[in-house]
């Protein structure tokens, strides 16, 4: 099956005709499915805008000055929309859709600027109306996932209650931040603001059962907006896979660096959800603004992410080292063809042993 590219961008208003046509043309060339937020569309203009797009599309409109979401399709692939949920306030669209024989729930959201966890609770309930196990949610969330990794030049964390609610929704719907999953150590941002502030407010959340279908994910180059587009490339296989079970790699417990990272993760989660961080008391005496079960789930989710990231990094470094050792062996083999010196042979044996030990660790 061919690759489906889904792109999402906050376009900062498309009321101006010249800009709208330009944006439509640009992203129509790039994506099979284009998600636009902050469109400033109105219900009266939807028919005209759809005509300008030239293909199938869905709009959630509010006013010509604010909000608005759209999901726009090209005719480059087979799809069927079974049911739709359109927000009258211009903040989200949720579709029950089949794409290339694979049925999913596809949602586009424009999160509120203020700290509004109720909004994300509502999104969860709307998505849960459909029985699809596979979910893709994209848009401008107006909330970062990780304050340290996803912000630059911020003085304080924005919308902490919304962030906690999103983490809760991720746990309940089995969602993961696919870009962060594929780029565990990268510091890249999708929004640039005054005073050199930057943050990753735009991203895709997907259920783990379709993670294997994501060929790649990326943050693009901004155009006529202070937001950059975000995108994923999907290739659905003919065989629908069930949700895999993640297993912890016990060998990580021998890695001092990983142990220290986990200790830091636990401390971070506790500090994030404790009711009164200013109180200097023992951890077992602390009170939290979420249940103990959810706190435990948040800790496990954080540690799981660190374990996956650490393992991924180890694998990349191991593959790099393996290539270096194989290259050295190939050079020594050439030397042995010219002159079968014992010293060269011993050096080769030493590198081969190093390679064997490396592969056993991998």
TrEMBL record:
Site location (Important for catalytic activity): 202
Marked site: Interaction with DNA substrate: 227
Entry cofactors: Mg(2+); Mn(2+)
Domain Endonuclease/exonuclease/phosphatase span(s) in chain numbering: 8-227
Molecular function as annotated in GO: DNA-(apurinic or apyrimidinic site) endonuclease activity; double-stranded DNA 3'-5' DNA exonuclease activity; metal ion binding; phosphoric diester hydrolase activity
InterPro entries assigned: AP_endonuc_1, Endo/exonu/phosph_ase_sf, Endo/exonuclease/phosphatase
A Gene Ontology cellular-component term: nucleus
Binding site for Mg(2+): 140, 142, 226-227
CDD domains, alphabetized: L1-EN
Cofactor binding mode and count: Probably binds two magnesium or manganese ions per subunit.
Gene3D superfamilies: Endonuclease/exonuclease/phosphatase
Active site: 110, 140, 227
EC number assigned by the record: 3.1.11.2
Similarity annotation: Belongs to the DNA repair enzymes AP/ExoA family.
Name assigned to this protein: exodeoxyribonuclease III
Gene source species: Mytilus edulis (Blue mussel)
């Amino acid at each position: 099956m061919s690759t489906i590219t889904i792109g999402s961008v906050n376009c900062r208003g498309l009321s101006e005709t010249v800009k709208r046509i330009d944006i439509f043309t640009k992203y129509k060339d790039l994506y099979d499915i284009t998600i636009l937020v902050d469109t400033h569309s109105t219900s009266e203009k939807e028919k005209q805008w759809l005509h300008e797009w030239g293909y199938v599309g869905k709009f959630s409109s509010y006013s010509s000055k604010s909000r608005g979401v759209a999901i726009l399709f090209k005719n480059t692939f087979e799809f069927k929309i079974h049911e739709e949920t359109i927000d009258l306030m211009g903040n989200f669209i949720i579709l029950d859709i089949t794409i290339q024989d694979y049925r999913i729930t596809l949602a586009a959201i424009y999160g509120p600027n203020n700290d509004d966890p109720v909004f994300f609770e509502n999104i969860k309930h709307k998505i849960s109306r459909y029985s699809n196990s596979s979910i893709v949610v994209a848009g401008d969330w107006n909330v970062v996932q990780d304050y340290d990794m996803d912000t630059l030049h911020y003085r304080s964390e924005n919308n902490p209650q919304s962030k906690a609610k999103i983490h809760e929704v991720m746990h309940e719907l089995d969602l993961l931040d696919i870009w962060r999953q594929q780029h565990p150590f990268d510091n890249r941002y999708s929004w640039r603001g005054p005073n050199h502030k930057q943050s990753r407010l735009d991203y895709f959340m997907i259920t783990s059962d379709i993670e294997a279908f994501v060929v790649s994910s990326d943050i693009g180059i901004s155009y006529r907006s202070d937001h950059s587009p975000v995108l994923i490339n999907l290739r659905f296989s003919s065989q629908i896979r069930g949700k895999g079970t993640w297993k912890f790699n016990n060998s990580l417990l021998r890695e001092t660096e990983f142990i220290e990272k986990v200790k830091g993760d636990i401390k971070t989660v506790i500090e994030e959800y404790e009711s009164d961080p200013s109180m200097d008391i023992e951890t077992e005496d602390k009170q939290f603004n979420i249940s103990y079960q959810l706190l435990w789930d948040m800790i496990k989710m954080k540690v799981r992410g660190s374990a996956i990231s650490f393992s991924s990094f180890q694998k990349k470094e191991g593959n790099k080292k393996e290539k270096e050792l194989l290259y050295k062996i190939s050079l020594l083999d050439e030397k042995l063809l010219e002159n079968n010196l014992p010293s060269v042979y011993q050096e080769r044996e030493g590198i081969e042993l190093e390679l064997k030990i490396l592969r056993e660790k991998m």
